[in-house]
């Protein structure tokens, strides 16, 4: 007779792990016990050698679908007089390191019960079990038990309590467990918050949506604004009220059959759509589809998700091809998640509110993904993925990394794991900064960590940088923006080896005080050197140039032609006085910082093509330039490569001249876009080849927001691999600024 203690760490609480262990122990006739502790799950099991070995293997191979094991430690201990196996109450300890599971979708068993008239939870919109339901958005502390969630507000009825205490039940210690007798309840309210009497709030909301009305719907991590995606008038009104002129709306459909009516998807995209995380997935639009063109204007893709709460399923079943499901906010604000705040902020947008009385503890936006080179790429890592840890190359001190200014996330590290927060947003908005502060506090609370180091962006005027500098009792480390992008991709791939980092994005504060964004770095997690970059160009008006791409187009054509630049159609949209002022700014260097940004080069070409002289959301010009691209066009433009005392410089002047000449000869914008994209892919390959010839490694990292561009990333990757480079791209962590905090944390730990 042998006895062993198992200490298991990871996402093993609130996911049915203890009843799984209980069942395994019964299968192998073992005695002992299992309990939750502050690190994860502790087990003592007693039996013969063969049974204990089989038990240990099954723990790692057969665990519940939501469980993730990151630590598995076994030790031999003395046998005891014990005749049965039991589940003990949770044990609290000083050091809390248990990992919380992400919020997840409705499992097949719960979904079957939801639509079973004979089940006591028939059409109950909060049905869940240990395999599904809310986790991260409702947890307030660890260990993960009901008193440490917002479900503490709902005492269990006798029937639910019996399930909760039954080790063989699918709802054993399912902390959100509830039913119509004891759990949260729906209500339908008008725009002013007054209760709308109705027998079935779901069907009443469906009737409003069918009538083209806008309904605010409380979900797992906040409110959505919903409208029938087939209603042109409804979608137009939502755009007007939300002040969101052109940015695409997300869609939700009941199942893949409904999605197939308006979008195309392959097997990988279908798996991504249908997975437990349920992100928004970018899918190619069908040429003819039944949805309003206002859902995603000037775009070849729809952002689509499948339902992930019982309420979503009830709303969509047999009712709509698709609902617009966009974040419940005004443009640039954080998503509303508290009922009073939602009523105040969304009252002027929504015609009605479908809400409930289960508190959301922390707001969480939907995740966004696309497939690239046959595998998923997260563009926004949030609900469904957070706070799942990312494995680091090795153990490191506890670091809090506070990210950048745009697409902000924060990151906390413990040992060899990095825990990224949900998507916070753009910190220029005061409400978003308040959400950022709350996110830091929440992540620290559920991980019970006190950082030794606080990492932040090199830019001293970011709100996140100011927050970091004021953080008490921790060493501060400033990390250059593009080095953080390089480190983020290296850390995601679990490597500390050096690489060529091709980092293309909008803007980032450079080590020379200028605005970087088209960078060729050589380095690793400990440091970097700037081996090359796009030639600097004036950015007339500073931030105004990011909102008015015509300014960058004028900057580049002035750089190439001087005052004798040719007349181009895009200039006809701009007042002559504005053109004169911007030219003077460029010539005198007044409020015209110099930038090497690849994102601003995209803006310039989009404006030259008369696609965009102004934008209504960040990255719009570059996105539309990608959307119009003709993939059959095989031509490309040329860039010059030259050296100065600091390194290689990529001069896009020949590219600009070629694009201008093509446009003057009547070439379609789609052709110009394709030649521009191919030119960038070729210059990436050429630069990396030259750097390798000079002794740089044969490993290339592609990171930064520009590498969200499918055509550019796949084209550059193909050229590099054909030239025998190892290419590292993102998948689990966004290439945009949403991944900065991971890179900052990895760099700061080694500073």
| Spatial gap, N to C terminus | 51 Å
Helix content percent band: 25-40%
Please name the CATH architecture of the domain at 186-356: Alpha-Beta Complex
Instruction: Label the overall shape.
Output: globular
Average pLDDT taken over every residue: 95
Radius of gyration: 27 Å
Uncertain stretches: none
Q: What is the CATH class designation of the domain at 186-356?
A: Alpha Beta
CATH level-3 fold name of the domain at 186-356: DHBP synthase
How would you characterize the largest beta sheet? 11 strands, mixed
How big a fraction of the residues is strand? 15-25%
Number of helices: 22
Name the structural class.
Answer: alpha/beta
Number of strand segments: 30
Describe this structure in words.
It is a single chain. The protein is of the alpha/beta class and 751 residues long. Among the domains are: 2-87, Alpha-Beta Plaits (2-Layer Sandwich); 100-184, DHBP synthase (Alpha-Beta Complex); 186-356, DHBP synthase (Alpha-Beta Complex); 532-702, ATPase, nucleotide binding domain (Nucleotidyltransferase, domain 5). Helix content is 31%, strand content 22%. It is built from 22 helices and 30 strands. The strands form 5 sheets. Strands 6, 7, 8, 9, 10, 11, 12, 13, 14, 15 and 16 form an 11-stranded mixed β-sheet that branches. A hairpin with a 4-residue loop joins strand 7 and strand 8 (223-228). Helix 19 (653-664) packs antiparallel against helix 20 (669-693) and helix 20 packs parallel to helix 21 (710-722). The two termini are 51 Å apart.
SSE layout and pairings?
Layout (H helix, E strand, L loop, with lengths): L1 E10 L5 H11 L3 E6 L3 E8 L1 H13 L6 E10 L7 E3 L20 H7 L43 H7 L21 E5 L10 H10 L4 E4 L4 E6 L3 H11 L7 E3 L3 H4 L3 E2 L2 H8 L5 E6 L15 E5 L4 H7 L6 E5 L11 H8 L5 E5 L11 E5 L2 E6 L9 E7 L2 E3 L9 E10 L9 H18 L5 E5 L5 H7 L5 E5 L1 H12 L6 E11 L5 E9 L4 E7 L2 E2 L5 H4 L2 H12 L14 H13 L5 E2 L2 H11 L11 H8 L12 E4 L4 E4 L1 H12 L4 H25 L5 E5 L6 H13 L3 E3 L11 H9 L3
Parallel strand pairs: 2-5, 7-14, 9-12, 11-15, 18-20, 20-21, 22-29, 24-28, 29-30
Antiparallel strand pairs: 1-3, 1-4, 2-3, 6-14, 7-8, 8-13, 9-13, 10-11, 11-12, 15-16, 17-19, 18-19, 22-23, 23-24, 25-26, 27-28
